[in-house]
Automatic annotation (TrEMBL):
GO terms for cellular component: NADH dehydrogenase complex; plasma membrane. It catalyses: a quinone + NADH + 5 H(+)(in) = a quinol + NAD(+) + 4 H(+)(out). Pfam families: Oxidored_q4. The chain crosses the membrane at residues 12-32, 44-69, 100-122, 128-148. InterPro entries: NAD(P)H_OxRDtase_bac/plastid, NADH_UbQ/plastoQ_OxRdtase_su3, NDAH_ubi_oxred_su3_sf. This is NADH-quinone oxidoreductase subunit A. Belongs to the complex I subunit 3 family. It comes from Roseomonas mucosa. Keywords: Cell membrane, Membrane, NAD, Oxidoreductase, Quinone, Translocase, Transmembrane, Transmembrane helix, Transport, Ubiquinone. Its EC number is 7.1.1.-. NDH-1 shuttles electrons from NADH, via FMN and iron-sulfur (Fe-S) centers, to quinones in the respiratory chain. The immediate electron acceptor for the enzyme in this species is believed to be ubiquinone. Couples the redox reaction to proton translocation (for every two electrons transferred, four hydrogen ions are translocated across the cytoplasmic membrane), and thus conserves the redox energy in a proton gradient. NDH-1 is composed of 14 different subunits. Subunits NuoA, H, J, K, L, M, N constitute the membrane sector of the complex.
Amino acid sequence: MAVLLPARYGSGLRVAVCSRCIAHALVALFALDNETMTQPLLAEYFPILVFLAIAVVISIAMVGGSFLAGHQKPDPEKLSTYECGFEPFEDTRHRFDVRFYLVAILFIIFDLEVAFLFPWAISLGTLGWVGFLSMMGFLTVLTVGFVYEWRKGALDWE
């Protein structure tokens, strides 16, 4: 079985798919393009793919190691709710007030919007006045939204 690699990602030659030729296929994928002398798109993302692969392998190894090394003897005492050494005073499944959810949702919304400030701060020198004014408009909308939520009483606990 042979696979034709596109010229954009390598040489455009047929590469046999077997265990001996995988290295040659990877070289063809990550080699410089002779015409434009640029790296193909896959080569630019290769460090990210390596990082993700290592993270997955380490995660699986840690979970598997703790599962294999841990003592697997559950009993009712270990599975019960622990509350300062006493038996639980009441049922642990009770309703939470909606205000907790409201504050959590507002935190997530404003926290994600503030995350847009980091790329802006890094590239502020290249954006010029247009980038500065657009971010000031964004921060104005963010501030107006925060003041609106505050006046509506979304952050009050009474």
